[in-house]
Amino acid sequence: MRLRPRRPRFPQNASTSVLVLVALALVASGGAAGGSAAAAPGSRLVPAAAVCSKATASKAMTRYGIGVIKPTQRKTPVYQVLCGAFLGPGSRAMVGSVAIPSCGGSVGWAVFRDVGGTWRLVMNVKHGAFLDAVHADIRELMGVLAPGDAHCFPSSVRYHFWHWNGSRLKAGAWFRALSYNPVVSPDRNIYCSFEIVTYPNFEAHCGTLSPVHSARLLLDGTLTTCDGNSSCLAGINRQQAHVVPYGQADEWNDFHCSSASNGMTCTVIGGKAAGKGFLINAAGVTPVAP
C-alpha cells in the first residue's frame, strides 16, 4: 500500500518549521518510541491493484471452489485468462476458464472483479467454451458437432458476446459459423487457408486467382499484401477447400472470414487487434479496421 499525503504548507516561523519537520519525520518512521504509526491528516491509503494472471485466476477459482479439483490437486487448473474492463468503464475484471486435458479446452469459466486488490466472484458459468476479449466484451465460442464429425473437429461453431448492461453481464444472441481449413468463395476465385507461422502464432492467408492478389494477416493485426504474380499464391493451401456460401462465415484459430458477393473479409477475432483485417476481391486488397 502507498501513503499519499498532501504536500505540507510550511509556516514562515523558523522554530515552528523545525517542529513541523520533526513531526513529519516521526510519522514517516512510525511515530515516537512507544507510539503507533498513523496516517498524516488528509492522506488516504491506495490498495494495490489485483494481478490478472493464470496464477491469480487459479487461486481465485480455487478459493470459490470452481473447477474439477481432485483430492491430490491443490489448485484449479487454468486454460485461459482474459483481462479487461468487462464490467463497465474503468472496471478491472479477470476471466478464467477451468482446463481439462482434452480438445475441449475447458469445462467452465468465471468472471471476477478487482475489489480493493482482491478478486471477487461476479459470474460462474458451468460449461466449457473458448473465450476472447473483444474490446470490452467477452466472446464465448463453442464447437457444434454435425453427424460424422470427429469429436475434436466440429464442422461449425456458435458464438455470442457477453456485454455489461450497467448492472450485470448479459449474453447476446448466438451466431453460427463454419469451421473449415482451407476455404474458397462460391465463384472459386478466392482461397483462404490458415497456417502456423511459428507455433502458436497463426496467419490467415488469402489469394485471388485472377487477377492475382494475396493478403497475409497475423494475430497481432499485421497485414502484408502481394500483387501481380503467381508467387503471391505460394503457401495458400487449395486442396479440398470447402465452399463458404455468400452470407456465411468460416472461423479458424482466432480468424473470422466472411463470404460476400464483393469478396472475402478476414479479421482477427479477439485481443488488442480485434476487428483488424482485410477485404480481398478481384480489385485487390483493402485493409479493414474496427
Characterization of the model:
The model is unreliable at 1-39 (pLDDT under 50). The protein is built from 2 helices and 22 strands. The longest helix has 16 residues, at 14-29. It starts with a strand and ends with a strand. A 6-stranded mixed sheet has the order 16-15-14-13-12-17, with no helix packed on it. It has 290 residues and is mostly beta strands. It is 9% helix and 42% strand. A hairpin with a 2-residue loop joins strand 21 and strand 22 (284-288). It has 2 domains: 54-178, no CATH class; 183-288, no CATH class.
| Number of domains as seen in the coordinates | 2
Strand content: 35-45%
What's the number of helices? 2
Give the number of DSSP strands.
Answer: 22
Mean pLDDT: 86
Major sheet attributes: 6 strands, mixed
How far apart, in Å, are the first and last alpha carbons?
A: 38 Å
Strand order of the largest sheet: 16-15-14-13-12-17
**Runs with pLDDT <50, length 5+?**
1-39
In which range does the helix fraction lie?
A: under 10%
Overall structural class, as computed from helix and strand content, comes to mainly beta
Shape: elongated
H/E series: EHEHEEEEEEEEEEEEEEEEEEEE
Rg of Cα set: 27 Å
